Amino acid sequence: MDIFAQQLVNGLVLGSVYALVALGYTLVYGILELINFAHGETTMMGSMIALAVIGALFGVAPDLPGILIVLAGLLVAIPACMLLGYSIERVAYRPLRHAPRLAPLITAIGMSIVLQNVAMLIWGKQYIAFPTTLLPQGRHDVFGASITDVQIAILVLTVTIMAGLVTLVNRTRLGRAMRATAQAPAVAQLMGVNVNRVISATFVIGAALAAIAGVMVSANYGQAHYYMGFLLGLKAFSAAVLGGIGNLAGAMLGGLLLGVIEALGAGYIGDLTGGFLGSNYQDIFAFLVLILVLTLKPSGLLGSRSVERA
Amino acid sequence: MNVLEILRGKAWLTAGLLLVGLILLPFLVEASLGKSWLRIIDFALLYIMLALGLNIVVGYAGLLDLGYVAFYAVGAYCWALLASPHFGLNLPFWVILPVGAAVAALFGVLLGTPTLRLRGDYLAIVTLGFGEIIRIFINNLNAPVNITNGPQGITSIEPISIGGFSLGKTQEVLGLTLSSPHLYYYLFLLCVALVVFVCMRLENSRIGRAWVAIREDEMAAAAAGINTRNIKLLAFAMGATFGGLSGGLFASFQGFVSPESFNLMESIMILSMIVLGGMGNIVGVIVGAILVTVIPEALRYTGDLQQAVFGKVFVDPADLRMLLFGMALVLMMLLRPSGLLPSKQRRQELAEDAA
Predict the structure, then answer these.
(1) How large is the ipTM?
(2) Are residues B255 and B172 in the same domain?
(3) Alpha helices, DSSP H only, in B278-316?
(4) Least CB-CB distance to B325: which of A103, A113, A283?
(5) Does one domain contain both B282 and B161?
(6) Which range marks the domain in which residue A16 is found?
(7) Chain B residue with minimum CA distance to A118
(8) End-to-end CA distance of chain A
(9) Of B156-165, B190-199, B341-350, which range is least confident?
(10) A302 lies in a domain?
(11) Calpha distance A192→A176 (Å, rounded)
(12) In chain B, what residues touch A91 (CB-CB under 8 Å)?
């Protein structure tokens, strides 16, 4: 098997997940210039809720087709996360919209601690296994790499969702309101846009994407954990910054690119450093990329906005 | 007449009473709450040092640093490597402490240099990434050359020993039997006093005012002739020095260090001490540090409460305290975003913002 092709495939799959989560960051940042720190936890919640539903349903009706059970989990997790995203905005961010910039960042951190611990109290500290047997187990050979059915589904679903999101933002009334709010909230309000509703909608859309990403990542790796949202969120944020935060295409590109960088980096770091550093350093790539981008080109690959603001 | 009125205008008397109180505190705590609380108070003192160090970076210079724990880790590991059987070294503390603080300061500059252009949220995320990188390296630098002993950490670290007087065991002093945490308490108290003194002097110095100027408006500060690059790096280095110092003390006090002690949560804890107490205000930061250290410990007793009310323990109190901590963080920001004891300047700013 070709390591390069294999890592490329793995990276693209991982990158799709990053991209979906990164879209949530970028949507919110584009409108509010706020890092929704609790977004990673929304992803985790999506994954956990879906797993709980899948587990329960499998216990009640084990004869149902596996794919249907997983779909049911996803369909419960999405609205649950949308509600969560809405509540987070209402509780933690809206009251602080005109407060000093540090304040919403701290509440966001507080919210993510709360969500993590709520998840831990409900589902415990152990890893929860995703019943992967429910999903098709096929493997295919593409250019010397092995790709599973689940991975293909993740890639296809991601592309579909991205296309849908782009249409939503560019072609619908809500999308136009979102773009207007991002450009100038006060003017948008004068033009009859209900800014608060647009902001809520943004959080809800981001949360829905996060829920899907959460289910994808647990289906791909076969497990979920109450702490998984933290690192995932951080990497997705790095991806959003890499692509240019506030820019939808940037988040998608950044996510895919970061996934590939990480997978290739983990695959080759051993050879590159003569065995000194191993694949257990995989997690530092996201941060290195983040630091490099922010120092060399703070606006990201596709971003045009200036970062220079207090 | 009430006590406060008697003390008004008598700074020496107040200071004297405070000193006597602080010296007697460990005896009272040990007698009333037990030995474990003495250790908690020692940790509170360590956190005061850390919080005051971070306060220089965040409170004075306005540079939001979410990776502060990295410097704490660097200081702790410096101590652990230079005074433990791991490398067979056992250098005296007056060599290690400056080395640890200096290495931490170097890391501060290392972090500061690439982030000079960043502000606000971006800086927060990059510093957070920096902290994680340091932790990942500490966690993995056990192969192929074993430097940090990986996730197991380094054990049997030597306690501080001053001229043959070891703080690591119970000692007889002036006819009193003092346990190791008790002895460390006085050392830490001394260090806190030193850090507070340095901070107070810095606050009203040329450098302190330059930091505040940068926080308020970097461009205006540069226009006024402040070398913003050096002053910002100095803030990072200064904060890191205090972090490294506390790290060293932590390693010797604890006797072992492992990467687990230096995760992001720790950085957030230290930041929340400053935010809770009141950014940029020394007294506020001290109060915040004490509250954030002591309250989660006190929440351990919620187990007894659950037992008393429901007849059984529903939720492990250790799990509950982080949840309550997160809620407190959110509520605090919603209700009192400037902290319990905001600095005078901050209060003015917030009033302006609201207007």
Answers:
(1) 0.81
(2) yes
(3) 282-298, 302-310
(4) A113
(5) yes
(6) 3-296
(7) B323
(8) 50
(9) B341-350
(10) no
(11) 12
(12) 330
